[in-house]
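Q: Sequence in, structure out?
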Amino acid sequence: MQGRNFADATRRSMLIAGFGLTLAVGALAPATAQQPSGPPIRIGGTLALTGPLAQTGAIHKIVGDLFVEQLNKKGGLLGRPVEWVLLDDQSKPDVTRTLYERLITVDKVDLIIGPYATASILSAMAVAQRYNKILVHSTFGIPKLATYERQFPGWPLGFEPEKGMPTAALDALNSTGKGPKSIAIVTSKFPSVQFVAAGAREVAKSRGLKEALYLEFEFGTRDFGPIAARVREADADFLFMGAIGLEGNQLLEALEKLNYKPRNHFYVYPTPGPMASSPLGDGALSNTAFENLPPLNASPSAAAFAKGFNEAAAKAGLPYTEPETQAGASWSAWEILTGAVAATKSLDDKVLTEWLKKNGADTIIGHISFNGPNNYGPDLMRIKQVQKGKWVIIWPKDIATPGYSPQAK
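A: Exactly. Output:
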């Protein structure tokens, strides 16, 4: 399968971690950082600060604020301070499109960085393409749609996450000797999770699993009672949910009212804190790019990022202060963009594009290359599971959190 080679990706990630500092930090942190001066380098972007995606948007805002603050303390970029021009896209792709037009044509920012969520990133990408701007983004979930040559993902999903995620989840469960024989697939119609759920359907079929249920529901659904009834009736060995945000918790709560608990369950993009802290989340599986756990936090740069995020998230009042996929991919996007500027000593979009395609980028997630289809490189995603009230990395084996392995029922 294209884009997935866990062993090679893991070794490469660990070698990068051994260097201690990522490109962006290493290039921007001389022994004695000088105070940045001159006109600021303005980096424009939007986030879902209001609307249904605001809870996750808040994570990305904390990351961006923290990164820019630390960047300026280390001398800024090209000796100049960095200013993040951030606008609220209200969780609406059409608003996102309008705001990126404004950032480029009215605010005349030097560079742009992507928003949160696939639909909004696609809107920003269309604007970037119109003006030939480089766009580094962190959470685009449908790589096949990212056809613009100057877009770069900070989230190493590989080119086929619709195959990679369900394959890895099933590999993890099968490694226990209790692999599932039947599957129930339930998904929100939110584009990126619906895309992965459709892929899970094909992967399950190719592996001979019986499809006991395939059910789609509208994004924004609040009454999960009827959905839970269908899941209980299907009674599959494995529940695979195309969930975003709190949808996974909402389904589990509805299932509890029916006195039913799934034996094995996977959620594409859950809200990590509520899933881990709920007793109903025990055994839940998901994918991850970064966790504040060994071995992923082993490098000094990753450890420093995790500590800084913990403190900033606590100060901001977030109920869950541990950095994970959203925070890690967001930090990675900033590293990619600013690292390319530092390495080329240029703000020219063409120069930055050519450098990244040739060199890739060193990030807290590992080395991200852009030499595959649509600038996607190897799949560096891992599988995590809720065990005893906390997320732990359980797959692939050679990058699992020490002392932990997959659990299946």
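The longest strand covers residues 210-217.
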